[in-house]
Specification:
Layout lengths: L2 H4 L2 H4 L5 E6 L4 E4 L1 H7 L3 H4 L13 H11 L6 E9 L5 E12 L5 E10 L3 H6 L15 H14 L3 E5 L5 E4 L1 H7 L3 H7 L12 H12 L4 E9 L4 E14 L2 E10 L1 H23 L3 E6 L2 E5 L1 H6 L22 H12 L5 E9 L5 E13 L2 E10 L1 H15 L9 H15 L5 E10 L2 H7 L1 H18 L5 E6 L2 E9 L2 H16 L2 E3 L2 E3 L2 E9 L6 H17 L4 E4 H4 L6
Parallel strand pairs: 21-22
Antiparallel strand pairs: 1-2, 1-5, 3-4, 4-5, 6-7, 6-10, 8-9, 9-10, 11-12, 11-15, 13-14, 14-15, 16-18, 16-21, 17-18, 19-20
Length: 567
């Protein structure tokens, strides 16, 4: 589409105003007959020339500023006083009004310049200030008034329709053609406003608006117009006000295209709806608090915090959901959220439900603006059961599933840590490695299930024989190890070892059968036999096998059995 196409033929050939079309580089691509009449030039004299070839040098800057002012403006109109060259080398005093021309992508591709002829002192006083800018127009001549008003009518950015009391269109401006993508011939035939309206709408509504407008009550409403080329709908805002045309009452309808605005509003509404549905159905708790007070909680959040409904939680201070010892830390976190707008990354902690129960949670917090004030959104996930499951999994990994005693891995860890602790005091550690004697007949006579019951009983007797600081572990089959931590010397070790052996020697009754079980036990002492925890375990094992080979059901110290190898 060329600039001439953009300039509607009827408007372009107006008898009131000179019109000149220039591309974005200032090259003139056309002018109307009025402009030729005002300047005395022919088309060939003007077309192809540069706008600065015709404007007096003193007004270059004013014209340049006028065009530059339009760039990026929401209303692309700017007016300036200048002198335009005539064919007789004289200059025409003009008021030039410039409009941007944009392509479909919104880029400026040229300008339309309207020229009005003025002369004499009254122009300088009435139209321009000392800088050459238009400030006020005081027109006395009737033709000039009509010309001026016509330019306003067709130059404003909103589309305009004028109706009679029945909604018949009696006048319109050029913007309505652009809005509906129609020509003037179409407007001649369209007749009534109802023919421009979307088929989805009831004209009874507009009839009421028209009636109220003719009664002197301005009306403002949203509407949909129909685009004839594809029958698509255009969302518009319309303002009705009563005016007079040649003594008759008519309604001036100012129409603004709000299609993009409506689309954005609809997107926001849909986005908010989706967000609310997401929040309301989220399995995670979502809490919003402002000034430390809960303002919103979703159903999942209410349940996590011990409520049955949101109302049970709303209005409560956030600090009440934390234990006393955590509240000072929480105050600092709230300060960072509210004052410094710092988000809180995902972390674990404990919260107190309204029923007093303490739960383990994961939570993250993010500040945001709500009604002009800082609020905080907190996402909470109850991980109490997960914590229990994790703890149980760790327990299974470190304990014998049959007896519940620590397994080899946990025992090794405790022996290593006990060894490190003894480096800081004068006490001793002892490792007792024991293997049951006479246990095989239990399995052979009654089966493995009875054997399992017997092993659980032995485990119970072991734990009853040692101190709370000691560890009894099952490391496989009918082999057990006891760690005595922080003993004063061999006398104390002997007392506990004897108690262990006596406990095991008590007759064992399983499924109505009585068995006599003993234990071969080897003892290694830190730091006497070794200062390395792995070697302590190995030495106790060697001492145990010595007992197995030399009589069973007793205990010996590694240092007694292998005196030359002890430390």
């Amino acid at each position: 589409m060329t600039l001439k196409d953009i300039a509607n033929e009827e408007l372009y050939n107006t008898p009131f105003t000179g019109i000149l079309l220039a591309d974005d580089n200032g090259l003139i691509v056309g002018c109307n007959n009025k402009m030729l009449a005002m300047t005395g030039f022919s088309n060939s004299d003007i077309e192809g020339g540069h706008i600065t070839d015709f404007v007096h040098a003193d007004y270059f800057e004013s014209l340049y500023s006028s065009c530059k002012h339009m760039t990026g403006q929401s209303r692309n109109e700017s007016g300036v006083f200048l002198k335009f060259l005539k064919s007789n080398d004289d200059y025409l005093d003009c008021l030039a009004t410039t409009f941007n021309v944009n392509d479909n992508n919104g880029n400026i591709v040229g300008h339309i310049l309207f020229f009005e002829k003025y002369s004499g002192e009254s122009l300088n006083k009435s139209y321009v200030d000392d800088d050459g800018n238009v400030k006020w127009v005081a027109i006395q001549d009737k033709d000039q008034k009509e010309e001026f008003l016509c330019n306003i009518f067709h130059g404003i950015q909103d589309a305009i329709l004028i109706f009679d009391v029945s909604g018949n269109i009696v006048s319109y401006n050029m913007k309505i053609l652009e809005l509906l993508d129609v020509d003037m011939e179409y407007m001649v035939n369209v007749g009534n406003f109802k023919n421009l309206s979307s088929d989805e709408l009831s004209m009874k509504i507009v009839t009421k608006f028209l009636t109220d407008a003719f009664a002197g009550k301005d009306q403002f409403f949203t509407w949909m117009l129909k685009k004839p080329s594809d029958s698509s709908s255009i969302d518009v805002e319309i303002h009705f006000t009563k005016i007079y045309k040649m003594g008759n009452e008519v309604v001036l309808a100012t129409i603004r295209d709000v299609t993009d605005k409506k689309r954005i509003e609809d997107q926001l509404v849909n986005s908010e709806k989706r967000y609310r549905q997401l929040v309301e159905h989220s399995p995670d708790g979502i809490v919003i608090h402002r000034d430390g007070i809960v303002k919103y909680v979703n159903p999942a959040g209410a349940l996590i915090l011990g409520g049955k409904r949101a109302e049970d939680i709303l209005g409560m201070p956030v600090i009440e959901f934390f234990t006393e010892e955590k509240r000072e830390v929480l105050k600092e976190r709230l300060k960072e959220l509210y004052q410094f707008q710092r988000s809180m990354p995902l972390m674990e902690g404990e919260m107190v439900r309204i029923d007093g129960n303490i739960i383990n949670v994961e939570f993250a917090a993010m500040p945001f603006d709500m009604d002009g004030k800082t609020a905080v959104q907190v996402v909470i996930r109850d991980i109490t059961e997960k914590k229990k499951q994790d703890s149980y999994i760790r327990y299974l990994a470190m304990h014998d599933t049959l007896t519940g005693l620590p397994n080899r891995d946990l025992l090794s860890d405790r022996v290593a840590k006990a060894t490190e602790r003894r480096k800081r005091d004068e006490l001793k550690n002892a490792v007792i490695y024991l293997d049951l004697d006479g246990f095989k007949p239990v399995n052979d006579t009654l089966g493995h299930a009875a054997g399992d019951d017997a092993l659980r009983e032995i485990a119970t007797r072991l734990e009853a024989s040692i101190r709370g600081s000691d560890t009894a572990a099952r490391i496989g089959g009918d082999e057990f190890v006891v760690l005595l931590e922080g003993v004063s010397g061999y006398d104390e070790i002997n007392v506990i070892a004897t108690r262990i052996l006596d406990g095991i020697n008590v007759p064992l009754t399983v499924s109505g059968h009585t068995f006599y079980v003993g234990a071969s036990m080897g003892i290694s002492v830190y730091p006497d036999d070794s200062t390395e925890h792995d070697e302590l375990m190995a030495n106790a094992d060697k001492a145990m096998y010595h007992v197995k080979d030399t009589g069973k059901n007793r205990y010996v110290f590694y240092s007694e059995t292998f005196p030359n190898k002890a430390k």
